[in-house]
Amino acid sequence: MPEHDLRLELLQAWLQEQLLNLFQRNAWGDVPAGTLTAASSDASFRRYFRWQAGERSFVVMDAPPPQENCAPFVAIDHLLASAGVHVPTIHAQDLARGFLLLGDLGHQTYLDIINPENADGLFADAIDALLALQRLPLDAALPSYDDALLRRELELFPEWYVGRELGVSLSAEQQASWQRVSQLLIDSALAQPKVLVHRDYMPRNLMHSAPNPGVLDFQDAVYGPVTYDITCLFKDAFLSWPQARVEGWLGDYWEKARVAGIPVQAEFEAFHRASDLMGVQRHLKVIGIFARICHRDGKPRYLSDVPRFFAYIDEVIVRRPELAELGSLIAQLQAGR
């Protein structure tokens, strides 16, 4: 932790006050001397600390305004909990300063422990939790994954990856090609049935816990395409799986979703195509985000995962001829590197 960290000092003072209140409310006795250690940070401005004393452990979120806003996290936490999704209990909050005191869902993410042998069981649990999330009625005050949001996300690719990372500008012909591809991906997404979408439902944000999984990082949830989260789960930023296994897991989800009354596509091939195109939209967005994090925020480490996303896109282009124009555009950009 930084030697002179004013926010950390403010957070520690707030934490001591909240722990005192929490221990008094629950008749746990005096607050013991605990340790506060860095738990994690992510690609945003948020960071997390773990307070631990004996068997008691809590997580403290530091989400500095104006860059971050805790209110969506709090609202969606309550929403998901109402559906039986295992999310952190919010013990205390200071939205004005961006501090939350949360229950601790454990030390191990899916990303930490998943392997070819245990993946079936872990993903089965993740699918069940996702179905609970998707069964929620569409009546909360959440934004929609609309044309404007989908297009804004896609434009991160030419703006930050092509323009800043590659240092080139698209020609008029390439720009026209890009717009046609973008429209294809947007039309496919908007044609899908809508459910609650987590937007980052991936192993890094799923905790190995009881009940399993614990779900984190849901504050950007929207109402949007039914294939979004399940595609995100299996085509992760940090690990890849053989296509045969991914298709098997997608099939498992599709069958369970139909039984659960989730509005998935009636035919698996239509569902699979929608998942493929949804994935490409997300992968292009993430490539742009990783370039932005490097060039705007000074965090270059995420760029090392960009080849994984191009591999995901290439895999889809092979079986989806309607994306041949995207394949040609990417080939031109890579040839010019």
From TrEMBL:
<comment type="similarity">
    <text>Belongs to the kinase AmgK family.</text>
</comment>
<dbReference type="GO" id="GO:0005524">
    <property type="term" value="F:ATP binding"/>
</dbReference>
<dbReference type="GO" id="GO:0009252">
    <property type="term" value="P:peptidoglycan biosynthetic process"/>
</dbReference>
<comment type="pathway">
    <text>Cell wall biogenesis; peptidoglycan recycling.</text>
</comment>
<keyword id="KW-0046">Antibiotic resistance</keyword>
<keyword id="KW-0961">Cell wall biogenesis/degradation</keyword>
<dbReference type="GO" id="GO:0008360">
    <property type="term" value="P:regulation of cell shape"/>
</dbReference>
<feature type="domain" description="Aminoglycoside phosphotransferase">
    <location>
        <begin position="36"/>
        <end position="257"/>
    </location>
</feature>
<keyword id="KW-0418">Kinase</keyword>
<dbReference type="GO" id="GO:0016301">
    <property type="term" value="F:kinase activity"/>
</dbReference>
<dbReference type="GO" id="GO:0046677">
    <property type="term" value="P:response to antibiotic"/>
</dbReference>
<dbReference type="InterPro" id="IPR011009">
    <property type="entry name" value="Kinase-like_dom_sf"/>
</dbReference>
<keyword id="KW-0133">Cell shape</keyword>
<keyword id="KW-0547">Nucleotide-binding</keyword>
<dbReference type="GO" id="GO:0071555">
    <property type="term" value="P:cell wall organization"/>
</dbReference>
<keyword id="KW-0808">Transferase</keyword>
<keyword id="KW-0067">ATP-binding</keyword>
<dbReference type="Pfam" id="PF01636">
    <property type="entry name" value="APH"/>
</dbReference>
<keyword id="KW-0573">Peptidoglycan synthesis</keyword>
<protein>
    <recommendedName>
        <fullName>N-acetylmuramate/N-acetylglucosamine kinase</fullName>
        <ecNumber>2.7.1.221</ecNumber>
    </recommendedName>
</protein>
<dbReference type="InterPro" id="IPR002575">
    <property type="entry name" value="Aminoglycoside_PTrfase"/>
</dbReference>
<keyword id="KW-0119">Carbohydrate metabolism</keyword>
